[in-house]
Write a structure and sequence with these properties.
8-stranded mixed beta sheet, globular
């Protein structure tokens, strides 16, 4: 029996009124938020298993846009059903087989083309959470068009080629994430030291569980709040440094 890896309760989310709008890009729907001024810098946000309409992920899109980036969260599930908190964990493995975070290259290319052609973006970064964190790790190994990446609690696990990052990548983890053990984090650090030729960073946030960093302010527990805010600041600082 697999324990519920999402320790934050997705049922009691506060309402969130989004600042952006939805667009259609070729076969993909996407949520876009732009800053109030012109910029040629953009960030792609890769959602977690709860999909592109989940309020927490839209909050992150709006947050990045507030820091001066054209920010977009495409539907990487291509119109199929996201995971729901009411679904059964016994089915999770099959659901993941049908929603592989390593198979995002085509969608990434569609979105990169849109950002360059339609939005005038010249530098593009990517941030992703959980399922999206795995997708970010994968993309930073494969797509040189992405200037920098931040993977939040998601890593490519089963490939020996997973350490040759193409551009600066930052890995954020919660200390109490029971989907990613500290052993796995130490292994990642060890191998990146050996093989990685670009700037990278790994940081573990004390006492934090899987999914901690995308909580909206009103949903945070007081003890976690400083770590959540720090992780978000760190994420934004990494993007600002390289994008």
């Amino acid at each position: 029996q697999m324990a519920d890896p999402f320790l934050y309760n997705t049922g009691e989310r506060s309402h969130y009124g989004c600042l952006g709008h939805e667009v259609q890009i070729e076969y993909l729907k996407a949520y876009v938020c732009r800053p109030s001024f012109f910029t040629d810098k953009a960030v792609i946000v890769v959602h977690d298993v709860f999909g592109w309409t989940f309020p927490d992920i839209r909050y992150i899109v709006d947050l990045m846009a507030g820091h001066g980036y054209i920010t977009i969260c495409p539907d990487f599930f291509k119109g199929t059903e996201p995971w729901k908190s009411t679904d059964h964990w016994a089915d999770f493995r099959d659901w993941m087989k049908a929603h592989d975070p390593m198979k995002v290259d085509k969608e990434a290319d569609v979105v990169l083309k849109y950002l360059k052609d339609q939005c005038g973006a010249k530098k593009i970064g990517v941030v992703g959470f959980s399922w999206g964190g795995m997708a970010v790790h994968h993309l930073m190994l494969k797509n040189p068009q992405l200037t920098a990446g931040v993977s939040l609690y998601g890593i490519v696990r089963d490939s020996e080629e997973r350490y040759s990052l193409l551009n600066p990548t930052f890995f954020i983890f919660g200390e109490k994430d029971h989907t990613i053990s500290l052993d796995q984090i130490f292994l990642l650090e060890d191998k990146l030291k050996q093989y990685c030729k670009v700037p990278y960073k790994i940081k573990v946030y004390p006492g934090q569980v899987h999914g901690f960093a995308q909580l909206k302010p009103e949903d945070m527990k007081p003890d976690d709040k400083p770590y959540i805010e720090e992780a978000r600041r760190d994420m934004i600082d990494w993007i600002k440094m390289f994008v």
